[in-house]
Specification:
Blueprint lengths: L1 E5 L4 H12 L3 E6 L13 E4 L5 H10 L4 E4 L6 H6 L1 H22 L3 E7 L22 H18 L4 E7 L1 E3 L17 H9 L5 E5 L11 E6 H14 L5 E6 L4 E3 H12 L4 E5 L8 E2 L4 H7 L8 H14 L7
Parallel strand pairs: 1-2, 1-4, 2-3, 4-5, 5-6, 6-10, 7-9, 8-12, 9-13
Antiparallel strand pairs: 9-11
């Protein structure tokens, strides 16, 4: 299948591109390189373009005879979304509307959307199931939910078959540890802790140590990037017979901030300074997934279970590419 991978030069998009190619599909990477890295896409076909460019999107979708679209081109920083909400609405909502309109014009129906567990906000219960209320607490989560709603209404017209995949914490390095996280600036805990272990940062921060958890720090659900991407393949296949799907993607097991930091120390064999500071607004004590629906309906099962193995893959990548991707 010919698949347009929007944001395909980014962390998740590049891993998805590699898996699509390995499984015999034809990925076409569409990215403006504002966040992504061209060297991460290997030999895949590349189109430099912006999601706001309706005419280019229609031309690519029609000219390449694209059969499905995967969308990884959103802005993802919850804290930044609070500071710059219009930036997030422009890129995550308005540009996605342009993409969906281009798909409609080109007659492309299958759409795999990278959503987020942030649509649940601070849940009333954990683990989180898909039928819990959607109550996002920041513009990032709001914009993802708006896109889900937009897809729902477009699907009702019979012109769109879509799946919204609500991620928990994507992490690790895929494709034999050659495709890892290189966000600039970086805000995710595992790469930040690895940077501290490598001596590239003076310390790593813990935001809040008085939560009602066993060690007082927040607990999150970490899912390896390859497990995440394999769920996308299964979901894309299921769109052959379904019009509208929503799944949580996570391991179902939580690890605290302190456990993550301690595991990085163990894997690296190095110590580094840990600074305990105040809570961040909006952080929930515990966020873990119930991915039973994806396991049942997609026959998906995460292969990367333990946090140590996940962090080992990330550690290998950061040591292979200590300065990140070249471009």
């Amino acid at each position: 299948m010919k698949v347009l991978v929007c944001g395909g030069a980014g962390y998740i998009g590049s891993n998805m591109t590699a898996i699509l190619a390995a499984e015999g599909h034809e990925p076409i990477v569409y990215d403006n390189l504002s966040k992504g890295h061209k060297t991460a896409i290997g030999n895949a076909e590349f189109v430099k373009g912006d999601l706001a460019d309706y005419e280019l999107l229609v031309r690519i979708l029609k000219g390449r005879k694209v059969e499905a679209v995967m969308h990884f081109a959103a802005f993802i920083e919850a804290g930044e979304s609070v500071q710059f909400p219009l930036k997030y609405y422009q890129n995550n909502v308005c540009n996605t509307q342009v993409l969906l309109s281009a798909m409609e014009s080109a007659g492309v129906e299958k759409f795999v959307f990278s959503s987020t567990a942030a649509v649940y906000g601070i849940p009333k219960m954990v683990p989180i199931t898909e039928n819990l209320p959607n109550e996002p607490i920041n513009p990032y989560g709001e914009t993802k939910l708006v896109v889900e709603q937009m897809c729902h209404h477009q699907s009702a017209t019979g012109k769109l078959r879509y799946v919204a995949l609500r991620y928990f914490n994507a992490c690790g390095a895929g494709h034999n540890c050659t495709l890892g996280e290189d966000h600039r600036p970086e805000s995710h805990l595992i790469p930040l802790a690895i940077a501290a272990a490598m001596g590239k940062r003076s310390s790593v921060k813990i935001f809040g140590t008085d939560y009602p958890t066993p060690d007082g720090t927040c607990i999150r659900d970490y899912i390896h990037i390859e497990d995440l991407c394999r769920a996308h393949l299964l979901a894309m296949d299921k769109l052959e017979k379904e019009n509208e799907l929503i799944y949580n993607l996570g391991n179902g097991k939580g690890y605290s901030v302190r456990e993550v930091i301690d595991t990085v120390k163990k894997v690296s064999g190095r110590s580094f300074e840990v600074v305990e500071t105040e809570r961040r607004p909006g952080d929930s004590p515990l966020l873990t997934s119930d991915a039973a629906k994806a396991k049942r309906e997609l026959r998906w099962e995460p292969a990367w279970r333990g946090l140590e193995k996940i962090i080992e893959s990330a550690w290998q990548w950061h040591n292979k590419y200590p300065n990140g991707y070249e471009e």
